[in-house]
Amino acid sequence: MTDDVTDPLRPSDHADSPAPDASTGGAAGGGALGVVGWLRWGWRQLTSMRTALVLLLLLAIAAVPGSLVPQRSADPNGVRQYFVDNADLAPVLDKLSLFDVYTSPWFSAIYILLFVSLVGCVIPRTKHHYKAMRAQPPRTPARLARLDAHRSEILEFQDDTDAAAAAATAIEAAQQQLRKAGYRVARYDGATSLSVSAERGYLRETGNLVFHAALVGVLLAVGIGGGFTYTGQTVIIEGRTWVNTMLDYTSFNPGRFVDEDALQPYALTLDEFSLSYVTPGAKGAGQAGDFVAHLTTQFPDADAEAGEVRVNHPLQIAGDKVYLMGNGYAPTITIRNSDGDVVFSESVPFLPQDNNMTSQGVVKVPDGLREQVGLVGFFYPTAQELTNGAYTSVYGDLEYPMLTFWVYAGDLGIDGGVPKSVYTLDPSEMTQLAGGDSGTDSLELKPGDTVDLPDGLGTITFENETPEAAGFQDSVKRYVSLSIHRDAAATWVLVFAVLATAGLLAALFVPRRRMWVKATRQGHTVHLEYAGLARGEDPALDGALEQFAQRHLASLADPAPAGEPPTKPESTPDVD
Amino acid sequence: MPDASPLTLDSVSVLLVWTAIAIYALAFIAYAVDLARRGAVAVDAKDAAAKIARERELVAAGGAGGGSRVGIIEQMRAQETASEEALNAPVGKRARLVWARIGTSLTVLGFLFHLGGDVTRGIAAGRVPWSNMYEFALTGTLLIVAVYLGVLFRYDLRFLGTFITGLVVVLLGGTAIWFYTDIVPLMDPLKSVWLVIHVFVASLATALFALAFGLSVLQLMQARRETRIAALAKAEGGASGTAKTGPGFLKTLPSAEALESLAYRFAILGFIFWTFTLIAGSIWANDAWGRYWGFDTKEVWTFVIWVLYAGYIHARATRGWRGSRSAWLSIIGFTAVIFNFTIVNMFFKGLHAYSGLN
Ligand code: HEM
């Protein structure tokens, strides 16, 4: 029964649609199809329930490989490592876009087809639904007893006129009560039988359409909003100031429509990075937490303000959000040549390698020494010597800091103009002077120490930031790595997601049902029938019908309406 | 295992959890006995039904019929109608299945211990007890039992008791043995209201999917039985054969169609909660990691599960897919849920490194 106007429109292979028969099946019923025929046929296939289902399942399957193989978008280092570990396999996988699953041609094809199908499905249904909402509930079927839920009563009266009046009153009352209960009602009266036809639950289809349309909204918001979105990364060492210009970002990923010259002019100064550690002896000892980057924010021609960035609590500034992504130590290192002139003096961010903040960093001295010198350093905030003589860090805080260096001399390879990472050193054109297999021990320094560089190149100092303090607590500077985002899409995505959820709730839980109340007069009796028909999932139909019938009968028994009150209704048990 | 020496709140919690596991195991046995006995009960009921039908037939045919055989299809329909009524019977009017009662009583008892174990863990940790894999499993299985017991007020789903208690014994037992983690302070990203909401809602969805899964499995078994009976009826011309048509307890269960529509009801509830999990997770990710979606492994699986259940809902509305085919999707969906919780947590790399396992 899907030919009623008030029924929602469904693709022809929907479970509620009439099964295809020879006359309606097929594309154009035999003969030549012609281009238009084929196109129409193809479109019908694309917008069928089966296609939607297959595409949904394909989408689920296609998403899985991205969790098995590292993705460039989520885990670029993992991808690099994968190429190292699986040198033969990786290029093949790369050809298949398996490192970029979610932007791959095949994944895109699936979801684009799915959304084309969705739009093609939703538009005609929306039109249809618009009309349905204006249409009358359908005629009262001739035989109500055949419907999903049915109940009948026989009322007896003194004479025919009483019965006729009572029938009219009953239907009138039913009409009012149904309308009050949120049904749309229509009267279909005949000579001996009066009836009211009622329908409710249009919201179910509205919800379904809103849900599907909101999914399109999500996709569009992501797609279009992404063009106006940027993310950039930077590192700020305690005491330093970072300015929101392209120059100061270590990396920057703008969407297509982002104007890189129009970034908001503001500056952030890292006053302090504070954190706490679970003390030794306690469960989870050494675990760091409560990270707070205390910042000073400054706009041109405005007073500086204090700001904070914590995990889960980004700093909102000028429409940007600033996230705390990581932290580490930035030992200040001073290098002097053999004449005692300072040739290098900087705080160098070291990258943490483990939970106890064993960290690695690189110092490059291109000028000022006899040769170009590169140092690969390890920093241990609480150093402990292993049996093989190497060090490890046993605690993340600065209890017993130690900095060690391997020293290389030769060509740093940075003159060619090719940018090189500040965190890596390419020693292929250099000779190792200290550490490793060089025959000379690596350099070891505690805060405040100065040692000689090998081969009389000069000296290196590990500066103590608080030389007069008793312990090492604040002897080394910390840095934070921040991620600065402008996300034009997020709010819209959320709006559409919430809309989708609301639509879904309506689509799944608003019952759509029809109800009929019919009063048939036969002499001095009135045969009252109540019938209900579920349109879609409606487990509560029987209960609802029963409840309505009881309430309706009770209202009839009230002495309010004119005429004789009906004699005790005789209930006929429903054989169904 | 935690240090056994001082009786800390956490070791009390562990003790309660193990007690709960033991009681659930007993409940499982009781429910299994119930299922086994249902076959026999069904035979008795069948005889009774046959007798009544015979009498009716005699009356109808004025004693001239003499035919004493009842069509097995009608028999099955009669059983199914009775079973559907039993399914919807209010608490006071349910069949007195002794072993099922024992099973339910034990499940309630186990639940109380389980709840105690969960709450003491939360108090000991000073936060919600779902912050690492151990606690998540603890609370997740608690919710499975809670939802099951809650649903019992509305539907007589005790035939799912073996499945629910069995599932919980395996998950909770495995959790207690392999996933136990000491209480440690929360990592920074977990300090968020979204931990409370997102994870709780995910557990709730899981519980509902579990019920849907159990019903879908039964639906498939029942559908197979119905097909066999139909085939038998054809072959023997409606005579009630003695051929095996499946496990005996199936005779006391509602029709495949009724099981399907019940499974669907739980699945759509679960789907709503899962949708909410997905959105809440994205909001949290946007706070914690600076992007609301990044196809991190856990995000991928949450998405895959969501799409699978969307597929299931569609399948139910697609001609040729309603019935057994869609049931398979519900089964695959729940398999993905379990996979996501176990294998993905343990072996897949990603940002969601909060299992607390090493
Ligand atoms: C992004 C892809 C899609 C998703 C995630 C999705 C999801 C859903 C969900 C969750 C429902 C159940 C809620 C409700 O009844 O409104 C549903 C129903 C429905 N969807 Fe989709 N859908 C998608 C694409 C499509 C497409 C392409 C079509 C058209 C062929 C379609 C047609 C329908 C129909 C007709 C229903 C109602 C089913 C019924 O009568 O019960 N959907 N969809």
Strand content of chain A: 25-35%
Quick one: which chains have the greatest interface?
A-B, 61 and 57 residues
Q: What small molecules does this complex bind?
A: protoporphyrin IX containing FE
User: Any idea how many domains of chain B?
Assistant: 2
How many individual domains of chain A?
Answer: 4
Give a description of the structure.
The complex is a heterodimer of chains A (576) and B (358). Chain A is an alpha+beta fold and 576 residues long. Chain A is 28% helix and 30% strand. Chain A has helices at residues 34-46, 49-63, 65-68, 76-85, 89-95, 105-132, 160-180, 202-227, 490-509, 541-557; strands spanning 149-156, 184-187, 193-200, 230-237, 241-243, 251-254, 267-277, 288-298, 305-310, 315-317, 320-330, 332-337, 342-347, 351-352, 359-365, 372-380, 383-385, 391-393, 402-410, 430-434, 443-445, 450-452, 458-462, 477-486, 513-522, 525-534, 570-572. In chain A, the strands form six sheets. A six-stranded antiparallel β-sheet of chain A has the order 2-3-25-26-1-27, with helices on one face. In chain A, strands 14, 15, 16, 19, 20 and 21 form a six-stranded antiparallel β-sheet that branches. In chain A, strand 8 and strand 9 form a beta hairpin. The longest helix of chain A has 28 residues, at 105-132. Mean pLDDT of chain A is 87; it is low at 22-30 and 560-576. Chain B is mainly α and 358 residues long. Chain B folds into two domains: 8-53 and 86-185, no CATH class; 194-236 and 243-357, no CATH class. Helix content of chain B is 72%, strand content 0%. Chain B is built from nine helices and no strands. Chain B has helices at 9-60, 72-88, 98-125, 133-152, 161-179, 193-236, 256-288, 297-316, 324-347. The longest helix of chain B has 52 residues, at 9-60. Residues 61-68 of chain B have low confidence and may be disordered. At the A-B interface, helix 2, helix 3, strand 8, strand 11 and helix 9 of A face helix 7 and helix 8 of B. The structure holds protoporphyrin IX containing FE. Protoporphyrin IX containing FE sits between chains A (10-11, 14, 47-49, 52, 56, 114, 117-118, 121, 208, 211-212, 215, 504, 507-508, 536) and B (310, 313-314, 317). Chain B: This is Cytochrome c biogenesis protein CcsA. Chain B: One of its GO terms (cellular component) is plasma membrane. Chain B: GO terms for molecular function: heme binding. Chain B: Residues 130-352 form the Cytochrome c assembly protein domain. Chain B: Its main location: membrane.
